[in-house]
Amino acid sequence: MSTHEARLAALREELKRQGLDGFVVPICDEHMSEYIGAYAQRLEWLTGFGGSAGSAVVLSDRAAIFVDGRYTIQVRDQVDGRLFEYVGTAQQSVADWLGANVGEGAVIGYDAWLHTRDWVKQASAKLAKVGASLREVASNPVDAVWHDQPARPDAVMKPHALEYAGKDAGDKRADVAAWLADEKLDAAVITALDSVAWLFNVRGGDVTHTPVTLSYGVVHRDGSADLYVAPEKVTDDLRAHLGNQVALHGYDDFPAGLDALSGKAVAVDPERAVAAIFARLEAAGARIVAKRDPSVLPRAMKNQTEIEGHRAAQARDGAAVSRFLHWLSIAGPAGGETELSAAAKLLEFREATGKLIDTSFDTISGASSNGAICHYRVSEETNLPIVTDSLYLVDSGGQYLDGTTDITRTIAIGTPTAEMKRRFTQVLKGHIALATIRFPKGTTGGQLDTLARQFLWADGVDYAHGTGHGVGSFLAVHEGPQRIAAFGGQGEPLRPGMICSNEPGYYKAGEFGIRIENLVLVEPLEIAGAELDMLGFETLTFAPIDRNCIEPELLSPAELGWLNAYHAKVLEVVAPQLDGEALAWLEAACAPIG
Q: Which residue ranges does the record assign to the Peptidase M24 C-terminal domain (predicted)?
């Protein structure tokens, strides 16, 4: 089945065999992960869509693919519109579409290990209104027709040293045990891969770009824990690291482990645990209490060791990015480079640090019109040359033992147009507004999002993604619960120790894209005479912002002051790591403006 049309036809035959009129295919794994292993990439295999968020519905006579605003362009480039209709999730959810497009008596299948309980309730209610029903499948029909589906990965689980973690795993479990006692609960089921990694101070290699291992954890009120992980991933070093308070079980033994919680009061995170886990616990007779995973907030609020590790990782990464920008300043105008060659060169500079474990996501290397695709992923088929008098956008990051990085720079190759410079400067103004804001304790990211958009809004333009996401410590580059966005996570207060991205942008479809991204740390502020507990952001990312794209007269004196101070800090942090022509370039790139 070399074509997506053949794969779709095969899936429809399998649905018919299973007595189903339709099936829902999300981008997801059994842990509700954003980034997933190759074995779980069912949506990409079926449709060709390579984004990190989306779903499809396949009926006997039609099919649809659902994506948010980040992927409006990408989905049309990658998915055949003859096979799948395109639906924006802001306009219609999967559940709403099902309710509007299936007939009475229709039976729609779903895999309970790939959906939340809330989604199942919503979809069931929509279908019930039209006399249709939702049915859990015993086996995923996509897997039945995906004959060369990759096996689950076999990378070992490794201890994550205290010098990077900053807090002993036993102490972390003790905190969870104390929380369970306060809540009068017996156990907490930990399903998110990054939560398991953080809580047990372990890392792995089962998901590209995210150093986690397929595993589940259960922490008990006495501080003991059960860890479910495939036996071949366990080493003697890992056993010694975990200690005798952690009982090891096979990954496939997890459902039986849920049965063993019969009669217990069990905390389960409804956002991070799949519907099958709730169903299994209910069948076992456990008393389920829907609570957020107790490791989520402490994981997001970095301890001092993690903060210092981030600073070191950002300084190292900033030097690698600066070397790349110097190289691009010569190679770009000379011609002959492409999106792929530039991404490969950037990887070379990161690898030359000797400390890179992996990139933190697929590098977004977007030249000209491809830069307008927010989450673009370059391939041999889409690879564009980097040409003169254009913009090149590169969003990239590294995974280091001491921290995770994420940085976007937009560079003018040759001479940018007046429109490019205006939009770039508006994006920069929004970036500065967010970087410099002071806000009272309790403020959410949703309350700050407008700051970054205001200058674009003044011209009647905007961008279709959030302004900021949380970032892990040698973990997921997208980490909750905090976000700086008008949607999703907007109700979560920003707290000291949280790390977020600051990444406003602008995208002109078919022409160019602009994004400026640094990572920032939430920190307490001492303000003379303040009557409130105040917070602000410390910028962690250091690499030059392209002065050739800036229209200085659009910047206020305060904004110009921030930019010059930022570039002075870039010199302070990065210059000691460079020499020769690269150092001379950096000094010129960071020279004061105005």
A: 534-593
**Residue 488 clears pLDDT 70, i.e. is over it:** no
What are the boundaries of each domain within the chain?
4-145, 158-299, 301-589
pLDDT, tens only, 14-37 = 999 999 999 999 999 999 998 899
d(CA 302, CA 297): 9
3-state SS record for 130-182: CCCEEEECCCCHHHHHCCCCCCCCCCCCEECCHHHHCCCHHHHHHHHHHHHHH
What is the CATH class of 301-589?
Answer: alpha beta
pLDDT tens figures, 524-564:
999 999 999 999 999 999 999 999 999 999 999 999 999 99
| 3-state DSSP of 473-537 | CCCCCCEEEEEECCCCCCCCECCCCCEEEECCEEEECCCEEEECEEEEEEEEECCCCCCCCEEEE
CATH topology for the 4-145 domain:
Creatine Amidinohydrolase; Chain A, domain 1 (3.40.350)
Question: Average pLDDT of 346-356?
Answer: 98
**Residues 304-313: what's their mean pLDDT?**
98
Q: Whose CA is closest to 502, among 467, 450, 453? A: 467
E-only strand ranges, 320-466: 358-359, 364-367, 390-396, 398-400, 403-404, 407-413, 439-440
Q: Would the pTM count as exceeding 0.85?
A: yes
C-alpha dihedral over 230, 233, 238, 239, to 10 degrees?
40
The Cα–Cα gap between 441 and 195 comes to 25
Q: Are the folds of 158-299 and 301-589 the same?
A: no
pLDDT, tens only, 398-442: 999 999 999 999 999 999 999 999 999 999 999 999 999 999 999
Pairing of strands 22-26, 499-502: unpaired
Q: Which helix (H) or strand (E) holds 325?
A: helix 304-334
Coil, helix or strand at residue 555 = coil
Residue 183: pLDDT band with limits 50, 70, 90:
very high
The mean pLDDT of 332-361, rounded to a whole number, is 98
Which residue shows structure tokens 């005798």? 244
Angle at the Cα of 476 from the Cα atoms of 472 and 479, rounded to 5 degrees: 65
Structure tokens at 483: 């976000």
What contacts 24+ positions apart, CB below 8 Å, involve 432-437? 432/559, 432/562, 432/563, 434/467, 434/468, 434/484, 434/502, 434/504, 434/520, 434/537, 435/502, 435/518, 435/520, 435/537, 435/539, 435/562, 436/536, 436/537, 436/558, 436/562, 437/536, 437/537
* Phi, psi (rounded to 5 degrees) for 419: -65, -45
| Residue 421 neighbours by CB under 8 Å, 6+ apart | 549, 550, 551
Among the four given CATH numbers 3.40.350.10, 3.40.50.920, 1.10.260.40, 3.40.710.10, the one describing domain 158-299: 3.40.350.10
* Tokens representing residue 418 in the block: 């007046």
